[in-house]
User: Which sequence fits this backbone?
């Protein structure tokens, strides 16, 4: 168990068990049991689906608990290594910026904007030359 009293070993039978630090929205199975069966489903099928839903919701709760325990453990490791939250944010932003710059969408956008800039520059240059000629002709 780690220092927070949580077993984060995924192979452990106690995986992700938290004290009262986690709160989840309760599942109201009584309401689900009273709901009429969906058209086309027998009562047995509906009951099986409700049981599966309950199981999946329980798994989601367990996964949230495991994730929370791992996040705490990660934070503790970072603290022990002297990594601050600000440093982690800086690294994440830097990594995200780099990932974006190497993406195909970014490269295509950059290329398109570069071409548009070149064409705009050429058009303004041509227009400036034409205006200069006209002003010269008017003198």
Assistant:
């Amino acid at each position: 168990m780690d220092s927070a009293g949580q077993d984060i070993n995924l192979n452990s039978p106690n995986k992700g068990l938290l004290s009262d630090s986690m709160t989840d929205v309760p599942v109201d199975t009584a309401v689900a049991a009273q709901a009429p069966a969906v058209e086309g489903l027998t009562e047995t099928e509906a009951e099986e689906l409700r049981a599966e839903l309950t199981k999946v919701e329980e798994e989601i709760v367990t996964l949230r608990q495991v994730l929370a325990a791992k996040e705490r453990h990660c934070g503790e490791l970072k603290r022990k290594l002297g990594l601050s939250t600000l440093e982690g944010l800086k690294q994440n932003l830097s990594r995200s910026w780099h990932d974006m710059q190497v993406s195909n969408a970014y490269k295509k956008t950059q290329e398109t904007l570069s071409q548009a800039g070149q064409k705009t520059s050429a058009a303004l240059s041509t227009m400036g030359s034409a205006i200069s000629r006209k002003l010269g002709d008017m003198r």
